[in-house]
Structures are given as C-alpha cells and as structure tokens.
Design a protein that fits this description.
Elements (H helix, E strand, L loop, with lengths): L2 H4 L13 H11 L1 H22 L13 H11 L8 E8 L8 H13 L4 E5 L15 E8 L8 H12 L6 E6 L1 H4 L7 H19 L2 H25 L9 H29 L4 H28 L7 H49 L7 H12 L1 H16 L7 E2 L11 H13 L7 E6 L3 H16 L4 E4 L3 E2 L5 E8 L6 H22 L2 E5 L1 H35 L3 H26 L10 E2 L2 H31 L2 H29 L6 H33 L8 H6 L9
Parallel strand pairs: 5-11
Antiparallel strand pairs: 1-3, 1-4, 2-3, 6-9, 6-10, 7-9, 8-9
C-alpha cells in the first residue's frame, strides 16, 4: 500500500455531536490569534503582579503531635520563643588563638562584625574562657546572634559577616562562617540546570521531527505553563505557606510534563498530516485522541500530588498544591495553546511532514514503527522470560531502598570548599562530631525551684549516659519556670548512632528520671526534629500510598474497563519507584561515585513517589490507550500489543529521554535536595520508559491476552464509562 492509498479524504461535515476536546481544539485552531493573545496576557499579567509584590516564601517547620514540637511550644509558653538564629565565626590558628597579636586582631574583627546590619550581638571566644576554645587552643568560635531567623537573613548581609571575619586572616589565622545562614551562601540558582535540560530536550525533538520550529513548540508550551504558574505562586506565597524550595521543583516537573504532553499530541498530529488530513482536521483528530490521553494522564498526576495533603505537613502540602497547579496549567496549555500554535504553522508542517514521508517511501525505507513491532514480536515470543529478567533486575535495584535512612542534610553534606562545610569540620575537630548537632532537653517543673532541680538532675544523668559526650549546665527560661540543657552526642548529627541516642533518651533514660523526680522532660532541637519528621513521614506513608494507588486504580478501571490492567500498572509503577529509591540510597546515602554520603532528605521519598507515580501513569495511559484502540478495532490481543507499541514506542522513549535529561540536569545544582530529586526522578523515568513500557508491559499484556480487558459486570455497572479513544 502506498502513501497515496493511505490518505484520507477529510469529512465534509463534522460529527453531529462533537465532544469537548473537539470543540476546544476547533475553537483554539480557528481563533488562534485570540488564544495566543490570551496566553500572552496571562503570562504578562501574572508576572506583572509577581514583580510588584515580590515573593514571601516561608518554610513551615512545625511538626504537630511530635515531641520536638511540644518542646518548642513549651519554650514559647515560658517566654523562650525563637527570635533570631545564630551563626558561628570559626577561627583556626595552628600556633594558638592566644598567640601574640592574634587575640587583638580577632577582637577588633568581632567589634566590626557587631556593627553590621542584622547583627544583634557577638560573643567573643575569649570571654567564655576555654568553653569556646578547643583543648589545644587552636580552634575557637564566636557566636553571632542575628536579629532575624536564618531563612530570612539576606545573603548579602551574611556575606558581609564572612568578608569582615576573613579580613582578620593572615599569619596562620583563618576564619570560616558556620550555621544555617552561612549554608545559604553556597546555594545558587537553577538557571544552568534548566538551560542544560532545555537544550538537550531541543536536540532530541529536532532529531525526532527534523524541524527546529516543530521541536520548539513543546518547549514553548512548557515555558508558558511553567512561567505562568511560578508567577501565580510568587503572589500566592503572601497568602499561603509555600517553602522557598518549591519553585525549583515546580520548574523541574513542569518542564518535563509540559514537553511530554505537547509531544504526545504533536506526534499524533504529525501522523494525521501524513495520512492526508488537512491541518485543521489533523489538529482536531489529534486533540480528540491524544488530547484525551493527556487529560486523564494529567488527572493521575494531580491526584497523586494531592495525596501528599494526607501527611498534614505544611511545607509538603504547599509544595504538593503548587506542583499540582503546575500540572493543571500545563495540561490546559497543551489543550488550548498548542492547537493555536498548530493553526499558525499548520500548512508549513503539512508540506514538510508529507514530503518527508514521501521521500522515505521513495527510498524504500521501512514504515515508521517497524522496529518497535519487531521488538514487540521478540518479547511476545518469550514473554515470561522477558518479564522475569526485567523484574529481577529492577527488584535487585530496589533492595537497597529497604535500608534507606531519612533525615536532613546539614553542613556536613555541603561541598568541601564551602565556608559552612569548613566551619563544620573545624568544629568537629576541635569540639567533637556531636558539637554540630546538640540535643535540646527541655525541663518543665511545677515552679522555678522544681524546674532548676530537675534540670540539674538531667544534666548529671546525661553526663553519665552512653553516647553523650557532655551535657552543658542548665539554662533557665526567662520566666524561670522551665530550663534547657544542651546534650552533645559523641556522634555526628547525621550518624545512625545519634538517631539511636534520641530513641534511648526518649524511651528509657528520661522516662525513668521523670518517674524519680516527677518532672517532665522533652527532647527537642534541630537534630531531634529531623528524627520526628522522618518518623512522621514513615508512619503516614501507608495511608498516602493507599490513597494514591487506590484512586489511580479506580480511574484506570473506568478508563480501560479492566481489572488486570490497572493492577498491573500500579504494581509496575511501585517497582520503578522502588528502583529509583534504591539507586538514590546507593549514590547519596552510601556515597557511590564520589558523592558525599548522608541521609536521604526526609520528604523526598514521598514527594518522588507522588510525582513519579503520576508520571508513570502518563506513560501507562499513552501506551495502553493505543493498545486498547487496536483491541477495540480488531479484538486480536497480540496484534493490539504490537501496534500499540509501534505507534507509541518512539514517542514514549523520546518523552522519557527528555524527562531524563531535564531531571538529570538538576544534578548540576549545588543544592543537595535538588540533586537527589533530579537523580531519583531521572532514574525512575528511565526505568519506566525503557524497561517497563518497552519490555515488561508488552510481555505482561501478551501473557494476559483477552483477559486483560475483563471487568466483572457488577463493577462495570458501578464505574462511570469513560471513552479514551475516538470511535
């Protein structure tokens, strides 16, 4: 059959009753100037408002129902609420910090620091005697009390503190800056990562479509959608609690999803043009088929993200809602802006793609999709072997995830050349590894005298507790009715031994002491809060997974009228996520490939689960909808699998490759959070698009055969009927 034989004559009249996707596509295509003007107006209007008001990102660190939160609330009740944080100027001189002229230089420098903006007071290492100096006198620290919390400290003001401190350097004396505000100095923007990812995506699209303009359309869709949504979030940050790390995650997901959705629709549009449809009919047909898949794929991603609300954690909820909004706007852009752009360039695309297909036919090249048909045929000949081989490999990669240790990275995970990391290492060397992460034990007695006695008792008890290097003397709260004791572990904040120590103090040491003297003891502080956060995430993970998986399975049952296909999809998605988390554990926790080892950020597993589960469902819907379309037409299960993979294999792998390069580009970011996020999602998408969709799914569908489309009659009556394909 020649290309001419395959061409269709466009219908003279539209169907008597057009669906919503057809009406939207036809309107956007015919009123393309209006659609483009509206999108440009939205983008400019949103960013005009965002530029006028600025952002007000806030990290919600509250942990309702946890012991560390109870400790923080108790301190606030007794007048010791946090007003400002501190940074430490860490000094090192091999000749000793009390050497000739050194003390005078340091003291002069500290006087200059105290005059800087946002600085409340400065305590000298010499005023505290040996407490702020190491035993050999070579390492010491000065505490700088800030007037604002660390996350609100402007980088420029923190840099002034560091610059002023380092003016005293010379003749063997060095100065570094430690603390959360100092860590922010090494953080950079994500512009390089985004640029590298977009450039790689453009190269892949040009190779796929052979046209720079065609390759640019999916990127334009993604940029419009992400740009508009980020602007909305900047404004919304004044009304809702949105963490400062949310926009990079939105950009990460929005670029990948936006290019994916536009690519799926555009690939179907190109196929319609090659078959002989005029540009408008090709646009309508593509939107009526691929547009439906994009709509339901977007719904699965949004549902998975909204499942994060079940955790009840402020910053996580803000991130989930922001990214869900990004996916929603991206989906709307693919369904409205893309048809308008196709209306602008449609005739050029029609000439280019049809000529390209004719030249391909004239040279005797195999039809597009032939290679994917052959791959499907190979898998179908040995489906069980393909299924078991790929399943065992992914299962082995997922095993390390069972030993994943959750927590929050501290300065010990920063780049070795950063000032915060060098300050961290000096303090560990001079005062012990636990100095960088002390535990805060809060004592509450009936009155001031009772609190003082109870605090003294716990200080003595902690000094004799295994795993505690030393406990500081009690410090009363401003009202004198409570007190705090700092306990310095023998291990670093990120060590598993520190986690065990927190458990021992809460489970055995402090309850026994409380029974003896009747006081209340609570373990708080940043290190304990990280443990509480990790435990809270682990406790609520089963509920979250049940919500996300359950809703996704029900949606796929309604779409595909099947029981086995949704269950298979859920199982395989869990396998790809497990493989990604296992790879993250090996690289970031175990330190493979030279990465600084440390815990996995506590909220990353659930965040990656929500995002990747939704994205994996995208590919599932893309592939299975095409298989189901062929099954509905021929009722031949094996043929449907081969044709489904032939028509979608190149699109899925290209979309997966784009996702991988965009996510993987965030490994260039200096922030460990974005490095872990980008790596984990890149691995998950690679596994899903290449191993699962191209090998495991065809094998599983071949083994299921006709049973893949079985749905019990009672369930069929309960579920709404959703048509994913054109008939």
């Amino acid at each position: 059959m020649t290309l001419t034989d395959q061409k269709q004559t466009p219908s003279a009249r539209p169907p008597a009753r057009e669906g919503v996707f057809v009406r939207v596509a036809r309107f956007a295509h015919r009123r393309r100037r209006l659609a483009l003007v509206l999108w440009v107006a939205v983008l400019l209007g949103v960013w005009g408002a965002a530029s006028a008001v600025g952002d007000d990102y806030r990290n919600d660190v509250s942990l309702p129902g946890t012991e560390s939160q109870q400790a923080a609330d108790l301190l606030a009740e007794h007048g010791a609420a946090r007003a400002g944080d501190t940074v430490e100027i860490v000094l090192h001189d091999k000749g000793g910090l009390r050497g000739p002229g050194v003390e005078q230089r340091v003291q002069g420098m500290l006087d200059d620091v105290e005059e800087l903006p946002k600085v409340g007071q400065v305590s000298s290492p010499y005023g505290k005697g040996a407490k702020a100096l190491s035993e050999d006198g070579t390492i010491g620290y000065a505490t700088v009390v800030l007037k604002v919390p660390s996350e609100e400290m402007p980088k420029d003001d923190t840099q002034r503190i560091l610059d002023t401190a380092q003016k005293a350097e010379g003749d063997g004396l060095s100065a570094e800056l430690g603390g959360d505000a100092a860590r922010l100095l090494s953080e950079g923007g994500t512009g390089a990562a985004e640029g590298a990812g977009l450039l790689a995506a453009l190269v892949i699209l040009v190779l796929m479509f052979g046209s720079v303009i065609a390759a640019g359309l999916p990127i334009v869709i993604a940029l419009f959608a992400v740009g508009s949504t980020v602007g909305v979030i900047v404004v919304a940050s004044h009304l809702f609690t949105i963490a400062d790390w949310t926009p990079p995650v939105m950009i990460l997901v929005g670029l990948g999803v936006g290019i994916d959705y536009a690519l799926l629709i555009f690939a179907r549009y190109r196929a319609e043009l090659v078959r002989g449809s005029d540009p408008e009919r090709a646009t309508v047909n593509a939107m009526d088929a691929a547009g439906r898949s994009v709509f339901f794929a977007g719904c699965t991603v949004i549902m998975a993200l909204l499942g994060l609300v079940a955790f009840g954690l402020g910053s996580l909820q803000g991130m989930a809602l922001s990214v869900a909004l990004t996916v929603l706007v991206t989906m709307l852009a693919a369904l409205t802006l893309l048809p308008a752009l196709l209306g602008v360039f449609g005739r050029r695309f029609a000439r280019r793609f049809t000529r390209r297909a004719e030249r391909r036919e004239a040279r005797g090249k195999a039809a597009e999709g032939t290679g994917w048909r052959r791959l499907a045929g190979l898998v179908q000949r040995r489906p069980l072997a393909a299924l078991l081989t790929a399943g065992v490999l992914l299962g082995a990669l997922a095993v390390p995830a069972t030993g994943m240790r959750l927590g929050f990275s501290d300065a010990g995970s920063d780049e070795p050349e950063s000032t915060s990391r060098q300050a961290y290492d000096l303090l560990s060397e001079g005062f012990g590894p636990g100095f960088n992460g002390p535990l805060l034990v809060v004592t509450d007695g009936e009155d001031g005298a009772g609190a003082s006695r109870a605090a003294a008792a716990v200080s003595r008890e902690l000094n004799g507790t295994p795993g505690v290097e030393a406990a500081a003397p009690p410090v009363p709260t401003p009202d004198g009715k409570a007190a705090t004791v700092l306990a310095f572990p023998t291990s670093a904040p990120q060590d598993e031994a520190t986690s065990d120590l927190v458990g021992d103090l809460r489970g055995e040491v402090l309850p026994e002491l409380s029974e003896r003297n009747g006081a209340q003891y609570l373990v708080g502080g940043a290190t304990a809060a990280a443990e509480d956060y990790s435990e809270k995430v682990a406790d609520r993970l089963p509920l979250f997974m049940a919500i996300v998986v359950g809703l996704s399975v029900l949606l796929l049952m309604a779409v595909f009228r099947s029981v086995l296909v949704p269950l298979k999809a859920a199982l395989l998605n869990l396998l790809s996520i497990g493989a990604a988390l296992g790879a993250m554990t090996l690289v970031f926790q175990e330190g493979w490939f030279g990465v600084e080892p440390g815990p996995i950020e506590a909220y990353l597993p659930v965040m990656i689960f929500a995002i990747v589960f939704g994205l994996s469902m995208d590919y599932e819907i893309f592939l299975i909808s095409r298989i189901h379309e062929e099954w509905s037409r021929t009722k031949d299960a094996s043929h449907a699998v081969r044709e489904g993979l032939a028509h979608t294999g190149s699109v899925i792998t290209a979309a997966g490759a784009i996702m991988v390069v965009i996510f993987g580009a965030f490994m260039l970011s200096p922030e460990r959070l974005l490095q872990q996020t980008g790596f984990g999602m890149a691995v998950a998408i690679f596994v899903d698009a290449v191993v699962i969709r191209c090998l495991i799914v065809p094998a599983a569908m071949e083994l299921m055969g006709r049973r893949a489309w079985w749905l019990p009659a009672p369930l069929a009556r309960l579920l709404p009927k959703v048509e994913l394909e054109r008939h």
